[in-house]
Structures are given as structure tokens and as C-alpha cells.
Amino acid sequence: MEVDGEARPFLLFSKPKPKRNNKREAEPRVETEPELPSPSLSSAVEPDNCHSDLALTAVAEKGDSEHAGDVDASAAAAVPSTFAELGLSQWLVDTCHSLGMRRPTAVQRQCIPRALEGRDVLGIAETGSGKTAAFALPILHRLGEDPFGVAALALAPTRELAAQLGEQFRALGAPLGLRCMVAIGGFDSLGQAKGLSRRPHVVVATPGRIATLIANDPDLAKVFSRTKFLVLDEADRVLDVNFEEDLRVIFGCLPKNRQTFLFSATISDNLRSLLELSGNKSYFFEAYEGFKTVDTLKQLYIHVPPDAKELYLLYLLSKMKEDNIRSVIVFVSTCRTCQYLDFLLEELGRPAVSLHSHKPQSRRLAALHNFRSNKVPVLLATDVASRGLDIQTVDLVINYDIPRDPRDYIHRVGRTARATRGGLSISFVVAQRDIRLLHEIEDVVGKQLGAYECEMSDVNKDVTKAFKAKRLANMRMADEGHEDKVQARKEQKKRTLARKRKHDE
């Protein structure tokens, strides 16, 4: 559901800016430096530019009488209702119509005009609200005027989201002959380095891969020396401490005179830190306050015995046709569980694909392509698929394992009920710990989940086949060495953490 906001100037260091008369007045001097809520973010943003590079303007919801007098003239004007009224080039307006984008969404109506004015933008809006077009269209508009060099670098937290962003840029920029390169792990780095040296118009990447390419060939830093736009999609994840060192490398290659666009479905402490460091150059849009799931999503839970999760999963998948469910994403907490369920469904003759970080990248993208193109109706995934993926046919999300963080729940269930469509989410509740996590989710989203009703006789209908498939799936896991892969990954993480601690000391 679209929620419009009214803009008001954000208060620099939480202190109001003095009103100016016609006569020039001196700026008040700030006596002390503000304390950063998140030290990791302060090191991710270059110190020389933290005040000007991401200065933001806050958005108040309608009816905020306390700040009614602060609403600027641009917000008081009529809100554009068509893409043409946003100030975009005609070829972009035509492209939007050809792609079925008839009217701009709330985040697009508010953010695109500010981006075209040259302002930095931080947009917080619910999943499926059109955030990608809110930053892609202004970039393409500017690129149409000056189509030379790397115009934009867009960073995403996962490989799959980066690949999707690349597809969306290509679709919107097709009339321009857009050259868009996706640089992600799992593919030949030498080929990607050569691709960067040819200076594509838009580079979409994960932070780790770009940092690695620059570290291996410092001359590649020059490729980004005139970049006009920096985009952080799912910004709360990109600004996470795990990407801190990579962002240092990347920001060191970018010009300070650029526009920065940050978009996310949830706001984090890191993003709040940027707000506290902000001035009045840029714009902050928030379509709702706090964490939220869309009203068109029906959210349920099932109490499941500890040894019967597979049975309940099979039962729900068997009802897809009856319930008019076109496709379903099943979220799990570990790569091992994801691969195990893949083998289980294969043994039972149920078509499914899996997506997790232990698979080669080419197979991950192939699995996602088969699911997106409706060749396979079931996607088994860890949280690598919980952010930003836009697949219109997903009618059901199953939380086979309940996530520990309510924000991850919001992103998971956001894969369905997108763009005002309806959807269903069902979460498995097994242990007392799951009940506690479920209550935390209910407190955060402000809704009480309903109980999913089913007959045990229906669930146990194929119990013999299911237990045979479980045994065969576990045997395949052992034969193909997946337990060894899990252990090797744990050891690698330990070594990485040890190196990081040693470096910090």
C-alpha cells in the first residue's frame, strides 16, 4: 500500500538551522562533535566527506502538525502522478509504459524529482514498492545526456540481487544501448577486470568482488574516478560491518563530487547514523515508520513436531494446485538444510531448485533462472534470497526455520504480496525457542499471526514414502561430502575472524 510523505528539512546534529534574513548571516559554530551511534559506519564513510556526501532531508508522515511549518515549497507542490510529470526524458517515459509501469509509486514520485535536482537520496520503503526504478531512472536520464564512462556504481549485498539489478538496468536502458556489467564472485575475475577496463555505463556488483578486482589491479581504480552516481541497494546490509573493509577500498576510488542513493526496506543503526551526520543538501524518504509487512499479506504459523517438519512441508507443497499457488519459496537457516531438502524433494519426484552459498555461482544463477521462468515451482533458499528479489509468481513463503532477527522475517515474507498483490506466509513453530521468536516477530510487525489449520491424517498420508526419502537424502549428503563442506566453511570463518581480530589489535 502506498503511503506518501511530506518533506521537512532534517536537523543537522539535531539542532535547527537558523532562518536566514535577506542580509547574510554567519553560520553558528558547533562547539562539540556528535557521538556516532555506530562506529562501523563512521569508518565506512570517508571522513572528509561525511557531512556533504550523504546529507539527508527527512520525511514526516501526513498530519505531523509539529513540523507543519517546516515543510518546504517543493513538498507543498502537487505530487506528480505520471512519469512524464517527474521530469524524466521522453524516451524513459516511453520505456516505462512499454514495460507496464503506468504510474509512479510513492517512493518514485517523491525521490525521482529530488534525484534529478542533483540531491543525494535515502529511501526507506516496503518491499515491492518500486525502489529500483526510483534510483535507476534518474541515473539513466543523466546518462542519456552524457553517455560516456562509468556513470554509476551500484552495490548489492548478494550476488543474486546484483544479477537482478543488472537485468533491470538493461531493461530500462535498452533504448539507450546501455552497457551494464555485473561483477560478482563465482565467475572469472580476469574477464571481469577486462570488462571494467572497457568502461561500461553502469557497473553492478557486490562489494567484495569490486574490492578484490581493485586490489589485484590498482589501475582499475581509475575506471571509477569520474563516476557520477553511487547506489547502495539494501543499504542496511551493504553498510554492515562485514563489508567495512571492502567499502573503504571502493570509496577511496570514487570522486567526492557525486550523488549517493541509498535504498532499503528497513532502517538500521548505521543508516540512522547517517541521518545524524546529515545536512540539508539531500532527501530522506520513509514510506512508513518502523518495521512493517504489507496489508495484502496473510501471515500464519503451524505447530510442528520436531521430527515431522518434512511431512508438513510435503503436505503444503501437495496443496499448491488446490490453493492456486503458482510458486513457493521455502526459507531455511543453513546451507546443509537447504541441500538436504533439495535431495529429499528429488527423491520424492517433486521438482525444486536450491539456492545457497555452498553451490557454485553458475548453478545458483541457473536455479534462480529456472524458478523465475516458472520451469520449477519451488525454490529452497537460505537468506541469500531474502533481499530484493522480485518474482511476481511467488504466492507463498514458507519459513521452514524461523529467522532469529525479525528484520529477516520481514525481508523473507516480502518476496510475496508485492506491488499490491496478495500473498501468504506460513512459519513452522517447533520448539519453545520458535515460540519466543514468533512473539518477537509479532511485536515488531504489530500483528498477531493466525494458526494454520490442517488434519493430521492428511499430513501423515505419505509418511512411509517421506521417511524413506529422508534416509536416502541423508545418505546422499554423506556420499557427496556436504558435511565436510559445512565443516570446512566453519573453519574458514574462524580463520577469517582470527585474522580480523589480529588486524584490529
TrEMBL record:
CDD domains: DEADc_DDX49, SF2_C_DEAD. GO terms for molecular function: ATP binding; hydrolase activity; nucleic acid binding; RNA helicase activity. It comes from the Eukaryota. InterPro entries: DEAD/DEAH_box_helicase_dom, DEAD_box_RNA_helicase, Helicase_ATP-bd, Helicase_C-like, RNA-helicase_DEAD-box_CS, RNA_helicase_DEAD_Q_motif. GO terms for cellular component: cytosol. Residues 312-460 form the Helicase C-terminal domain. Transmembrane segments: none annotated. Residues 491-505 have a biased composition (Basic residues). The keyword Hydrolase applies. Residues 23-32, 478-490 have a biased composition (Basic and acidic residues). Residues 1-47, 478-505 are annotated as: Disordered. Residues 81-109 form the DEAD-box RNA helicase Q domain. This is RNA helicase.
